[in-house]
Design goal:
Length: about 270
């Protein structure tokens, strides 16, 4: 979602997933959660019509921003001058590492690209201090879900491997113009330290997690097919009847590491039986 201040006059564009934030109380709540400091290196995704941009610039020396909408980008440059360092581009095509470190990222992410963008930003996690995003509440619930809950899935595991995440507060549809049809929520994401548990192969981990949740109602042993024979189930603490949604991130790391050689070799028929 892009954001709006008091300027108005811009027609929201569906193809960009634009819903402009207009509720001053919510805006202040978000800025308080971010707690910007004068010298912070901060980049805003989707500044839109400055609902967050203006109050952030009041507390920062400068602010980087990425805006896909060319018309809005022009207005933003005129409105804020050189203190707003604007990149007119699709955030999915931006290398956020190029902004420097330690980087703080904020924004109201468009519903239509929120999940791909979250995965894209993982590539820059080692230079990021924190991220504060407004997203569809359903997505935030999935991001922070614990094992065993119905919201826990591939998105939960892949993000919790890299971040500590907290859902901060919900935002109702009437805080936006035009109002979306769903509730929103603000989430804080802090990259885990270098000492965090890591899989031996990130590519194998991604493949195993994707496979595990491909048929989440089935027992994991069946979903993994021939791979299951290579898994030390007991030593990983995984019950024979376990489904993917019951495994912790640590157990997924153990599962991926146990399957690393067979997955990389392309061995085994992984079709569910």
């Amino acid at each position: 979602m892009s954001t709006r201040g008091h300027g108005g006059g811009h027609q929201a564009r569906k193809r960009f997933g634009q819903h402009f934030l207009v509720d001053e109380v919510v805006i202040e709540q978000i800025v308080r959660a971010i707690r910007p400091e004068r010298a912070d290196l901060m980049v805003e995704i989707g500044p839109g019509q400055s609902a967050l941009t203006a109050p952030l610039l009041q507390q920062l020396d400068c602010l980087h921003a990425v805006e896909i909408d060319r018309d809005l980008a022009g207005r933003l440059r005129q409105q804020h001058g050189e203190r707003l360092k604007l990149t007119n581009a699709d955030a999915l095509q931006v290398d956020f590492r190029e902004f420097g470190a330690p980087l703080r990222i904020v924004g109201n992410l468009p519903y239509n690209i929120s999940t791909p963008l979250l995965f894209h930003l993982i590539q820059a996690a080692d230079v990021v201090k924190d991220q504060h995003f407004m997203l569809q509440k359903e997505v935030v619930d999935r991001m922070v879900a614990a094992p065993g809950s119905s919201d826990y899935g591939r998105l939960s595991v892949m993000l919790q491997l890299r971040y500590r995440m907290d859902s901060l507060f919900d935002v109702p549809p009437d805080a936006f113009d035009p109002p979306p049809r769903v509730m929103s929520a603000v989430v804080r994401m802090r990259p885990l330290p270098e000492s965090r548990p890591k899989p031996a192969s990130m590519a194998v981990f991604e493949q195993v997690v994707t496979r595990a949740f491909s048929q989440r109602r089935k027992m994991l042993r069946r979903v993994l097919g021939a791979w299951a024979a290579a898994v030390p189930w007991e030593s990983l603490g995984i019950e024979g009847t376990a489904r993917a949604e019951t495994l912790s991130v640590a157990q997924f790391i153990g599962l991926a590491d146990a399957l690393k050689d067979i997955v990389e070799s392309g061995g085994g028929d992984v079709s569910a039986t």
